[in-house]
Structure formats: C-alpha cells, structure tokens
C-alpha cells in the first residue's frame, strides 16, 4: 500500500528507512555545505573529527548533518543553505550573510570531516549543543547524536541528557584544541561507542 | 569461501522468521530495519551495540531537534525536479513521472519541505566516480533532483526508469531498480533517507537491503504504485508513492505552516 488514506483514524504507518548507500556523493553534498557560519562572524567555531567503525577504521563515505541554534539560543527558520542560480541552474550556495543553522558534509578519504558554524546558545534546561545526524553505507537507519562544547561546566552538569548517560557523557562533549577548534569523533560501535539518541 | 546468494537467502529467511516469532510472542511491529542486519554485510561494523538513549520530546519543547532546517524557492532551480531536462540532450530510457505526498504519522501534509532524489541511469549506472559497474554512462543524465512539497505536501519528479545494478555484497548480488529519497520533515527528528522501488520487481526476494525491512507490510510501503492518471500521454508512465515520516514533531499550531 503506497497510497495513504489520511482519513484513517489510526496513526499512519511510517515509510521505512534505508541506507544512504555509497553513491549519494554527486547528489547530497554541496559546495559550502560545511561553511554554515556567515563569513567573518565573530562567534564562528570549527568542529571536526573522524567517523570510525567497530574496528576503529575510518569511514570515507559517511555523511554528517549539523543543525543548531544561533548564539542567543533562537532557532533559525531561514532557507538558502543550498541556493541555486536561476540563470544557469548551477549551484550558488549560501549568501554569506544569513545563518540557516544547517549544514552537510561528507567525510573525506581519511574519514575526517569539519564544519564551521556559530557557537550554539543554550535552550531551556539544556546545555548548548549542535544536533548531529549520521548517514553511511551500511547504516540502515541514520543515527542522531549531539556535540556539546566544553567550558561551562555548570551548564554541562545540569544538562538532562548528560546527567542520564553517566560515564558515557564524554563521548558527547567535544575536546577543545589549542587553536580553538573542537574535536568530536563519532564511534559507531565498540570501545568508546558514541551515545546515539532516539526521539519519542 | 565467497558468500553466495543461497547463503544470503538463508540468512534473510532466518531474520524474517525470528521477526515473525517476536511479533507472534507479542513484540511490537518493527516499521524500520534493525541496524544490525547481517545479510547486508556493510552493516556489521557500522551499527551501535549499546542501546540508543531515548529522549521524550513531549517533556522538553526547547529541543532544537523539534525544529527543522528550512528550505525555500531559492534552494531550487527551475529544472531541478525534471531529471530529463538537465542536459542539452534527451536521456536514454523509459520516461517516468513520480509523485506523491509527504505526510506525518497523523496523515497531515508536510508543506514546503525539501525532497532530494538520486538514482542510477536506465542502464543501472550511477554518475559517481567510484561506481565500478561497467554499464554505460549517459551524457544526458546525471540522476540527481530536488523538489519542495506544495501546500498539500505533494511532490513531483520527471525522470527515467532506473536500471537494476550489481553490487559486491555477495556473489551475484543485484539491487532491484530504485530511487533514493532524502526527506526533511517539520522537525529534525523526522529526518528520513530511504529508497523507492517499482512494482513486481523479480529481484525483491534476493535483495538484503529491501529485506532488511522484515515486516511484510512495511516493506510493501517502499514499493510505488503504477498510477495511470499520473502517466503523461505520449510522454511518461506514472508512479504514485506517498512518504510518511516517523518521529515526533511540533504540534500543528506550534509549527504554524
Ligand atoms: Fe542505489
């Protein structure tokens, strides 16, 4: 059954997930997908890391999406992440000024990814975080996780998720590096497996 | 020893039987694949072994995951949803029209959201540099498209029928013809990447990716319906495929669009 009757009283059954597969690379990634922060914005941060499998091998074909609020904690509802040129049909990308909050980056041949975005602000009781969605060949359903930034220990200690996951919380908190970048590795399986989330 | 289709068939049957037994014993219906589905060999080292941590979204309206990235008209070019008009010449193959509605679990339309598709050409070849299958490339077909859903949640693509293609999961592995879909909902929690299949494909029982959806009814929802009213006279054959997003979302009034 693929034609859905929205008048049915019960909840409509969902469309199953499938893997993104190996061949999305010419369709989903786009130039500037990892440059989420407006050019020269003073609140820009760099986050980066590796995506690793159960043997610690890097994934050269993982796709990462990042989604986060503005530094003041408000959520942008701004389109234009992947603008197209109406004249040529080609790719224009972001306009360099507006912040859409969303970006997409494919891991490189070494399994490494990076993105530049704005430092997220806190929302409600939660410590500031970026939401992350991971796709890959071999992954039949994408995985959600979060990147929390170190620094405000009081906020991290009060965060509802971090307090629940006990000693696994370190897998959710990026490591600040000497140059101000934040390192966040994603381990899909095994030793130091990243905490992944489901939403109900 | 190389993995044969017979080996994979046995594993698929065992996973299916185990699922049927779980449901018969009272376990809930599983609408999605399990991430640890061994017949699809790439899944073995790429799924978490620890249980996911559940977040009750009804208790925290501040979660950024309850909002979705926004997309608009400026994110699309005029021919983005017509994959047959992206080059100077006509692509080879049977032209098809694919249309349907994007809905949430309550059957409500998801409006103004982005749907991206990608697919092999009519010979079963992707325009991807790492693709090894030696079927011909089509200089007039890239196989990537984008559309925004309209006020009723409807989307519309014109493309060519993709071909099946071999892959390296096991000896003699062939993927049934499919179109990949990437979909955004009204909340990031509803994010979905999936694949649409065509009716009556003889490769269905052999494909560990399709069979990873062990629930028979759920698997059927990945197969489009031939819809003669969508066929364009003298031009294309029509397929109807509705997409229903899982995951919690903001309520209708909160979302406001
Ligand atoms: Fe494919």
Automatic annotation (TrEMBL), chain A:
Its EC number is 1.13.11.3. Residues 73-95 are annotated as: Disordered. The keyword Oxidoreductase applies. PANTHER family: DIOXYGENASE, PUTATIVE (AFU_ORTHOLOGUE AFUA_2G02910)-RELATED, PROTOCATECHUATE 3,4-DIOXYGENASE ALPHA CHAIN. Belongs to the intradiol ring-cleavage dioxygenase family. It comes from Streptomyces argyrophylli. This is Protocatechuate 3,4-dioxygenase subunit alpha. Keywords: Dioxygenase, Oxidoreductase. GO terms for molecular function: ferric iron binding; protocatechuate 3,4-dioxygenase activity. The gene is pcaG. It is an enzyme of class 1 (oxidoreductase).
């Amino acid at each position: 059954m693929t034609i859905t009757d929205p008048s049915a009283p019960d909840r409509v059954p969902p469309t199953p997930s499938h893997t993104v597969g190996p061949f999305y690379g010419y369709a989903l990634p786009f130039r500037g997908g990892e440059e989420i922060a407006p050019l020269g914005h003073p609140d820009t941060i760099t986050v980066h890391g590796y995506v690793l499998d159960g043997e610690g091998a890097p994934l050269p074909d993982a796709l990462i999406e990042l989604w986060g609020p503005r530094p003041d904690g408000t959520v942008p509802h701004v389109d234009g992440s992947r603008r197209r040129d109406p004249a040529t049909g080609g790719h224009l990308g972001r306009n360099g000024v507006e912040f859409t909050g969303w970006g997409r980056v494919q891991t490189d041949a070494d399994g490494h990814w990076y993105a530049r975005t704005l430092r997220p602000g806190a929302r409600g009781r939660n410590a500031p975080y970026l939401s992350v969605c991971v796709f890959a060949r071999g992954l039949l359903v994408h995985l959600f996780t979060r990147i929390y930034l170190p620094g405000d220990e009081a906020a991290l200690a009060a965060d509802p998720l971090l307090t629940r996951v006990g000693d696994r919380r370190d897998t959710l908190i990026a490591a600040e590096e000497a140059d101000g970048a934040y390192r966040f590795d994603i381990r899909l399986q095994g030793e130091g497996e990243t905490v992944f989330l489901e939403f109900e | 020893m190389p993995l044969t289709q017979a080996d994979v068939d046995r594993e698929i049957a065992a996973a299916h039987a185990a699922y049927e037994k779980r449901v018969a014993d009272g376990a809930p219906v599983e609408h999605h694949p399990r991430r640890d589905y061994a017949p699809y060999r790439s899944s073995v080292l790429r799924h978490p072994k620890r249980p996911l941590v559940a977040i009750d979204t009804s208790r925290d309206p501040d979660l950024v995951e309850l909002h979705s990235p926004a997309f608009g008209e400026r994110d699309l070019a005029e021919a983005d949803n017509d994959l047959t008009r992206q080059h100077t010449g006509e692509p080879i193959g049977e032209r098809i029209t694919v249309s349907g509605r994007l809905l949430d679990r309550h059957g409500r339309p998801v409006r103004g959201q982005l749907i991206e598709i990608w697919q092999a050409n009519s010979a079963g070849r992707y325009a991807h540099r790492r693709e090894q299958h030696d079927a011909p490339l089509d200089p007039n077909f890239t196989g990537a498209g984008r559309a925004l859903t309209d006020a009723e949640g409807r989307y519309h693509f014109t493309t060519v029928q993709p071909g099946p293609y071999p892959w390296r999961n096991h000896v003699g592995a062939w993927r049934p013809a499919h179109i990949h879909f990437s979909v955004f909902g009204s909340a990031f929690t509803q994010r979905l990447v999936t694949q649409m299949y065509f009716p009556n494909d003889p490769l269905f029982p052999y494909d560990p990716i399709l069979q990873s959806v062990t629930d028979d009814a759920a698997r059927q929802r990945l197969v489009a319906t031939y819809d003669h009213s969508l066929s364009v006279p003298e031009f294309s054959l029509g397929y109807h495929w509705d997409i229903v997003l899982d995951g919690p979302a903001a309520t209708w009034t909160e979302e406001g669009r």
